[in-house]
Amino acid sequence: MLGYSIRRLLAAIPTLLLLIAASFVLIQVAPGGPFTSERPLPPQVLANIEARYGLDQPMWKQFWDYLYNIVFHFDFGPSFKFKDRDVNDIIAQGFPISLTYGFLSFLAATSVGVTLGVAAAIRHNTWIDYFAVSLGIAAQALPNFIMGPILILVFTLYLGWLPGGGWNGGAWPYLIMPVIALSTSYMGSIARITRSSMLEVLNSNYIRTARAKGIPERQIIWKHAMKPTLLPVVSYLGPVFVYVLTGSVFVDIYFSTGGLGQAYVGSALSRDYSVLLGVTILYGGLTVLVNLITDLAYAWFDPKIRY
Amino acid sequence: MFGSSKKTIELAEAVNEQAIVGRSLWRDAYDRFTSNKAAMVCVAILGCIVLFTLAGPFFAVWDNETIDWTAMGDVRGLGAPSVESGHFFGVDDLGRDLYSRVIQATTTSLLVGLIGAAMALIVGTLYGIVAGYLGGRIDGLMMRFVDILLAIPSTLVIILLLVVAGRSFIMLFVALGAVSWLSMARIVRGQTLTLKNRDFIEAARAAGVGEFTIMIRHILPNLLGVVIVYASLLVPEMILAESFISFLGLGISEPYTSLGALIAEGAGTMAYGTLWQLLFPLFFYVTIIITMFFIGDGLRDALDPKDR
Amino acid sequence: MKHIRNSALATLVATTMLASPVLAAGTHPTTGEPLADDQTFTYRVLDEHSSVDPQVVEDVTGAEVVRDLFEGLMNQDEEGNLVPGVATGFTTNDDKTVYTFTLRDNAKWSNGDPVVAGDFVYAWQRAVDPELSSPYAWYMEITSIENAAKIIAGDAPITDLGVKAIDDRTLEIRLSAPLPYFATMTTHSTLFPAPRSVIEAHGADWTKPENIVSNGAYVLTEHLPNERSVRERNPMYWDNENTIIDKVVALVINDENVALTRYMAGELDRTEVPAGQFPRLKEEHPEEAISFPRLCNYYYTFNLSNDGPEQFKDVRVRKALAMAVDRKIIVENVLAGGQPEAYSFTPAAVANFEPPASEMASMTQAERDAKAKELLAEAGYGPDNPLKFSMIYNTSESHKKIAVAMSQMWKQKLGVEAELGNMEWKVFLETRGNQDFELARGAWCGDYNEASTFLDLLTTPSGYNDGKFSSAEIDSLMTQARTASETSDLYTRVEAIIAQEQPVIPIYHYAGVYMLDSDVGNWPVNNVEQNWYSKNLYKIAE
After folding, report:
1. For residue C505, what are the β-bridge partners?
2. What is the C-alpha to C-alpha distance for residues A199 and B78, in angstroms, rounded to an integer?
3. Which of the four pLDDT bands, split at 50, 70 and 90, describes residue B250?
4. Is CATH 1.10.3720.10 what the domain over B36-307 is classified as, yes or no?
5. CB of A37 within 8 Å of any CB in chain C?
6. Are the CB atoms for C78 and C526 separated by under 8 Å?
7. Does pTM surpass 0.90?
């Protein structure tokens, strides 16, 4: 399994390189540059700025320098927009924030979703089932970006229970609304997947056999049904994990959390090439890593798979 | 974010196990689907919505872009939903009739869902079949390409496409299609790999049928079950994705609108006494998404013989 | 947990304070208003600031922070008048090419070092240094300081810049052309001093809160990008005694509606009012909703370049379109924030110039509409030959609303078909800059409080003249104005030509539309450039 993991990670290197190259070209093709502004800069001033950031070099040279600095100095370059900061700085500041609320949302979505799903399946066709199903569907069908303003309106303005935004080092009152807003729709999906998976497992022959043998229901569910039930859930969770860690632009926008989601979209809009590339590489690397973890987790849940 | 759920891959595999048999299976599937009450109710509801988008304009007093200047001056009062003023759903912040705008937006969102999913379906299926059937090094290259694209965050792809090519219906479909065909291609390729060594393909090949004909005539029909299930799940994902694009302000241009754009506008003004601007589009949006879920589930059950 | 404990503590402290009024923070020295105990001013900013380095900063948000952290030779007061800053005053020679500033002897950096003339020399040389490549180097060029342009072009060493420290208290500036308003330009952040030793010790990291040394009334104590930045009282500041606000917090809130919600929840002292919400807020919170004119205009520009659309080459078409825009509806129903309707290019809020009333301004809207129909018919457009064109604007809720309203006015009154094109900001700038449009949105905020900052935009060489309108008469009038002592007549003539030729459609002039907590005292509503200094504000006890 270790050998397999190492092989997978090595195979990811050319993928990442191509990813960097593709993004590098894509970004530069977009109209407007980092220094296009409302007030056009005089040519001489623009030339000085471009020289400073190496943008006057041919594309291949820029690309080579960029890679060189990453590989030998682990330096992702300066930000073109936030002139006091470089990309390493921006990621070091924003990523832990995204990671914290993303991971908590992931935990919340998984634990609540699986609980709801299992409860619904065990109490199939009772009010618990109906409640869980409607909750799951409602959570999934609401566009997640409207959760932000609604939560702030209710909990900050009307009830006055929670601060309306900010991060404050991740103090819990500041975490609650972002986590609710981000986890809701995933919670819904997870609940639905868990429920249908569990129902299928409970109807399978081996569970029927176990029941026939008189094994207590509790033990059947926990010892025999749980693992196969979670198999499809795990494959769903992989992409979700990457997504909650990265796709949090609306959380950052509404709750001023200062995470990477907003920095990422912002850098695309302001053509801050270096920040955009840096975060893309981070996300690409994360995707590769999470895919590997998902596959390993899969092997654990499904003994038929061996690496 | 979308098109990436491995759950569908699972389901697809399960479907394919037994979906190869022949016509009678489709008949069975049809019967199973029509006997699924929830799915049929949802088909009816969705049908009503489609009917509403078609027939609704005949009852409209205002069109979707004309500003009612009197309502504009007092959106909270005169702009509220009312039968007398002809604004059945009220007006938006600019005094435009929300009834007509919701109809137009619903049409857009449905089209985005269907066409976006269709694009993913066509491109992904062709790509997947070719890669899977040809196999070997070509397969390796084609799949590596897909892997790379999958590692690029879809947000980036969408933003860049819309930024580079400007806003239009076409571009929206292309952007959504561009990020969602990848998973489809992977699923189809996997299916093709298992299919191409089956006896009936061997037989066709022995009988001298051309490669291209085999792909189109023999492999493609056997993939349809998987493809339909996956595509039905893609439709709500496309609509959700479009609403995210609208949230970023990159959606289609005025005077056209989509449910996502209307919801984003309504969510902005919900504290200002014009709640109908949020509720009407949200109602249609949520209804479409939920019915699509149930229809997708129904299709899966119908095409997945395990449940019998 | 921490949050709760803190607020409980705060309540405890507050009650203790109530019990013993003797401890109260006192009253304002001039107005006599009772001052609040907590002198913290919290305001909302739309976006993270680009930098707090005075020579590098390029956005308004950043400039607001920098104005608190650093102090230049001169400051502006609440009316926008020039008042002493680090300099106590200045003298100039007869032809206004040599300025000599005298620095006060008690100005200090936050680390205790005195602020000397050399700090200005160093900072200004930095601003033109190609190596720092400041995006605001152009500002140094328009100050006309000797050799600035040459140094930026890399043709001279930075030491050639026409600024010299005669001694620690005397700064001499030599200009390459006479500039009567040079002293007013020193209120801009690019000309603020910079602490050489700190910059040399920390390099690019010198603006981090743990490193930064500044000479203004505040020091930067906390910066959490995209979340908040905090500046606190600088005890070394020469006028620290008269500074009342202790702490200023800028919260980044991207969404204006959420910002308003948080304002209502009491988390902010100031936020912008979303378009259309001002009348309701004014009714519900008359004390807090404020609106005042700003030095900015908002217009649409025709593409008059050679490859521009044929139909706009006809002045009757341009006039018809300008006439049919009902500005009253736009300012009262769409924006509804007390913005003035625009019939001239220059905002009326500008100093020393009264924009002339054009013919259009004196007509009623009905007359304008009739005239517009007539003009358009004369130009050969009618029901069977409708005028068609496309108009572009950049993505924003209020730009969208205005564009939609305008296109509907044209459609309903004139049968004109205007296709709306909404573009992302950078694409928009590129498209407009390349004359790849027919009709495009434009807006400008004055760099300084003088009409030429607007009128120069319509001269042939202007870099911002994206419509490529060219009038030899305007060019020559504006050249004359640069050295003329009496400019008002020249500007009036320029406005008259603009009204006649209609190269642009002025829509409205900006207003600052805020929710400002009624306990914030002395907000400079009369400073049309909105150059505000936290040190001049105070919080009134409630």
Report:
1. C300
2. 52
3. confident
4. yes
5. yes
6. yes
7. no
Chain A CB contacts of B264 under 8 Å are 145-146
Taken as a whole, chain C contains a residue count of 542
Neighbours of chain B (3+ CB pairs under 8 A): A, C
- Tell me the CA distances in angstroms from C224 to A123, A140, C247, C333, one per residue in order: 48, 33, 16, 38
Q: Which residues pair with C35 in a beta bridge?
A: C540
What is the torsional sign of CA C334, C339, C341, C342?
A: negative
- What DSSP character marks residue C30? T
* Of B7, B164, B240, Cβ closest to residue A31: B164
CATH ID of A87-301, from 1.10.490.10, 1.20.1250.20, 1.10.3720.10, 3.60.21.10 = 1.10.3720.10
A285 touches chain C (CB under 8 A): no
In terms of DSSP H, where are the helices of C37-102?
Answer: 60-69
Is C289 in the B-facing interface, judged by CB distances under 8 Å? Answer: no
Q: Which residue of C has its CA nearest to B160?
A: C424
According to CATH, the topology of domain C6-253+515-528 is: Dipeptide-binding Protein; domain 1 (3.90.76)
Amino acid (one-letter) located at A295:
D
Residue C12 has pLDDT above 60, yes or no: no
- Mutation target for A interface from B1, B2, B6: give the one with most A CBs within 10 A: B6
Which residues contact residue A130 at a Cβ distance below 8 angstroms, ignoring those fewer than 6 apart? none
Across the interface, whether the CB atoms of B307 and A141 are under 8 A apart is answered: no
What pLDDT, on the 0 to 100 scale, is given for residue B24? 67
Tell whether A115 is within 8 A of chain B (Cβ). Answer: no
CB contact under 8 Å between B166 and C423, yes or no, is: yes
Higher-scoring residue by pLDDT: C469, B33: C469
* CA A136 – CA A188 distance, rounded (Å): 4
Instruction: Kindly report, residue by residue over C129-138, the tens digit of the pLDDT.
Output: 999 988 888 8
pLDDT of A307: 56
Shortest alpha-carbon distance between residue C52 and chain A (Å): 8
Q: What tens digit of pLDDT does each residue of B108-150 get?
A: 899 888 888 888 888 888 898 888 888 888 888 888 888 778 7
Q: Residue C400: its chain B contacts at CB < 8 A? A: 254
